[in-house]
Write a sequence for this structure.
């Protein structure tokens, strides 16, 4: 009887899911309620988790809950600690979910809500979640080794080195693009700049509190910090109204970019407890709290999505970034659908806490499902705005012009009506001078979130909500930025240590300072170029980041596929091989277009040539001619980097194929490094203590 | 209800690392009974724990 009831319930979920997905896919011309998105997402996730993930866990990976995990075998009460699965889930989710799933869907909304939403849903359940879960499993079976280490042990030195370089490269691009997002959100916005700067002294206060005043009282310190953060949002509004004070926080993008670089450098060399660790606490609580609040608000308020399902920009002429729907929607939305970066958390970090292999499905697959859900909510927040408003905020001055009247005329001519008055009222409501050309995704997400929250708690607080949302995005962007710079520094020290061992000493001051400076200079360069680029910079950097992130995912899936075949599971290897094939297709196509396209908004070299022709013929306005040589150099550099990424990708894929073929024809390959079975002694009750 | 709140509170403490020292003491009592050195003090333990948390990739995009 129970069996039949269960079957019936799953059939109902499948039916509801199918009609929700069908509803959002087939809806044309009318507003559609955001609840359909939530329903479609939840049903797809439930079915995938119950059937596909379970099948992979039990049949493909064959998780064994009687087997002791590294956390149990190597338990040292310090970093290897067997931990309750919900706690591990919390840590894992907090680690994987950064600003990526918020920014990507916002930018991809230029294609309409449909392509991005479908990719977020199906990319996650078939690709991203599978990657995260498989890597988590493989690392758990290998003493919590990192992805790079596994690549070296199982594929060979070539694969290992490629994985290491790829990780470093993606880190640099990621930090630069995130820095650009924050800079664009703070540009000429004293309120936002004040609030974001205030997070630094607040983090230091919290850091000192939990290190020296009341050592280890993490929660007390966090409560204090959250209170101070919220006060700083309110205080920012006051500062914004004081003529004498606001000038201190009203800056050009370039000034802010330099500040961010100084900050990144300081965060990389200062002790972690002073700045990095306390900021991370605050950002984690802000993140979890705000995401929960957003979910509750969307479910209770059921806002209407006003963006059409598909816009004309799928032909590649989109104002936010150039390029056709295929492959660029898949590049723009990396985090939220599939993100290679997660493989770094799933290997090395999370397995050290995992108490039981049986929890791998929930933590690996389930964690990514939740991130995908965050991406769906970001898509909703972007598309509940009037499309005209959305495009006015996100189109750079280089596309629609600096003049407000001309900008609204252009955008209205696209078929998305908007007026100058509408934009002015909105800017005033949000406590900003202007909302035109605020590229990068953060301001439009903040406007979307503020309007959702505002309709729940009254319009009078709109400005407060807007700046709360900006602060919330900025605080964990800066956390990724400083943590990333620090990790980059360690990686660089490690690499340089191979050449000159003294450089490899992580606490030798000259090494610390010089390698931190090098890392900051590397991402600082891209940030600088992004800021001086009249087209906003995000249109260049974000696709580059997407390609890098998908490349890292392809590396992770190559490692997984190689190991699956080597473990005699050839007939199941398609589980990771198919997403891998898809990633190779989209990354290679995107990279190919970025390198060879004649369209100056897509091809790097085409853009460089076009700009140098115009410069030679004196066709550029003086302020643009001034920065043109740097932009031309940068286009060439971006082109070369893209070639490098794609070469790296093919190198590791071919290396994996080599290993697989050798294994299949019976030639010797590196032995699998799975640790031997040792029985688990942990009992579930013990964990519950 | 009270039991439930207690459980939530425990999860919050564990997630934030608020109870890391208590866990360490329990681990010490279970595994290192024979050691001559006494367990670390709370301040010492917290230093080591916090620094240990931050080597490696801890945050993503």
């Amino acid at each position: 009887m129970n069996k039949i009831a269960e079957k019936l319930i799953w059939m109902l979920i499948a039916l509801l899911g199918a009609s929700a997905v069908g509803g959002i896919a087939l809806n044309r011309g009318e507003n559609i309620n955001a609840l359909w998105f939530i329903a479609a997402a939840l049903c797809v996730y439930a079915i995938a988790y119950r059937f596909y993930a379970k099948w992979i866990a039990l049949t493909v990976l064959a998780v064994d809950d009687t087997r002791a995990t590294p956390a149990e075998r190597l338990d040292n009460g310090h970093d290897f600690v067997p931990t309750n699965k919900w706690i591990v889930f919390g840590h894992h989710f907090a680690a994987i979910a950064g600003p990526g799933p918020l920014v990507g869907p916002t930018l991809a909304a230029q294609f309409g809500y449909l392509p991005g939403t479908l990719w977020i849903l199906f990319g996650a359940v078939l690709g991203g979640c599978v990657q995260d879960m498989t890597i988590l499993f493989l690392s758990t079976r290998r003493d919590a080794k990192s992805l790079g280490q596994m690549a070296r042990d199982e594929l060979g030195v070539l694969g290992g080195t490629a994985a290491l370089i790829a990780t470093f490269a993606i880190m640099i691009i990621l930090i630069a693009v995130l820095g650009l997002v924050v800079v664009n959100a703070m540009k000429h916005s004293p309120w936002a700049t004040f609030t974001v700067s205030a997070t630094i002294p607040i983090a230091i206060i919290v850091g000192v509190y939990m290190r020296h005043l009341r050592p280890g009282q993490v929660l007390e310190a966090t409560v204090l910090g959250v209170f101070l953060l919220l006060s700083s949002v309110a205080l920012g509004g006051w500062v914004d109204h004081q003529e004498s004070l606001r000038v201190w926080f009203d800056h050009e993008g370039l000034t802010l970019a330099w500040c961010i670089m100084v900050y990144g450098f300081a965060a990389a060399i200062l002790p972690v407890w002073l700045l990095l660790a306390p900021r991370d606490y605050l950002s984690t609580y802000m993140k979890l709290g705000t995401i929960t609040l957003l979910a509750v608000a969307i479910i209770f308020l059921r806002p209407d999505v006003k963006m059409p399902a598909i816009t004309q920009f799928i032909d590649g002429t989109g104002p936010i970034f150039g390029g056709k729907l295929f492959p660029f929607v898949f590049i723009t939305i990396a985090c939220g659908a599939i993100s290679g970066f997660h493989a770094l958390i799933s290997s090395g970090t999370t397995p050290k806490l995992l108490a039981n292999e049986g929890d791998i499905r929930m933590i690996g697959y389930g964690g990514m499902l939740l991130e995908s859900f965050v991406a769906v909510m970001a898509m909703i927040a972007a598309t509940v705005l009037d499309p005209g408003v959305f495009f006015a905020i996100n189109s750079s001055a280089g596309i629609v012009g600096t003049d407000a009247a001309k900008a609204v005329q252009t955008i209205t001519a696209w078929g998305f009506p908007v007026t100058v008055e509408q934009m002015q009222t909105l800017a005033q409501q949000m406590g900003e001078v202007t909302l035109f050309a605020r590229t990068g995704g953060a301001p439009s997400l903040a406007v979307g979130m503020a309007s959702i929250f505002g309709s729940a708690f009254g319009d009078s607080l709109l400005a407060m909500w807007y700046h709360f949302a900006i602060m919330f995005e900025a605080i964990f962007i800066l956390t990724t930025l400083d943590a990333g710079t620090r990790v980059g520094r360690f990686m660089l020290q490690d690499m340089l240590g191979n050449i000159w061992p003294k450089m490899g000493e992580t606490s030798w001051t000259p090494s610390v300072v010089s390698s931190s400076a090098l890392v900051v200079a590397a991402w600082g360069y891209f940030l600088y170029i992004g800021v001086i680029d009249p087209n906003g910079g995000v249109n260049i950097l974000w696709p580059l980041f997407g390609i890098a992130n998908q490349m890292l995912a392809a590396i992770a899936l190559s490692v997984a596929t190689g190991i699956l075949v080597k473990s005699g599971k050839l007939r199941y290897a398609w589980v990771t091989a198919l997403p891998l094939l898809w990633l190779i297709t989209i990354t290679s196509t995107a990279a190919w277009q970025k390198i060879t396209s004649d369209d100056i908004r897509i091809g790097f070299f085409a853009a460089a040539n076009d700009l140098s022709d115009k410069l030679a013929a004196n066709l550029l306005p003086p302020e643009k001619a001034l920065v043109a040589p740097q932009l031309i150099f940068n286009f060439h550099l971006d082109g070369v980097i893209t070639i490098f990424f794609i070469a790296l990708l093919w190198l590791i894929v071919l290396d994996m194929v080599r290993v697989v073929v050798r294994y299949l024809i019976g030639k010797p390959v590196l032995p699998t490094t799975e640790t031997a079975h040792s029985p688990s002694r942990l009992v579930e009750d013990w964990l519950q203590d | 209800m009270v039991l439930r709140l207690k459980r939530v509170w425990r999860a919050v403490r564990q997630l934030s690392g608020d109870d890391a020292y208590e866990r360490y003491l329990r681990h010490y009592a279970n595994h290192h009974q024979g050691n001559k050195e006494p367990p670390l003090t709370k301040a010492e333990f917290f230093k080591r724990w916090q620094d240990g948390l931050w080597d490696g990739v801890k945050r993503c995009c």
In short: Chain B touches chain A at residues 11-18, 20-21, 23-24, 26-28, 31, 42-43, 45-61 (CB under 8 Å). The CA atoms of residues 42 and 60 of chain B lie 30 Å apart.
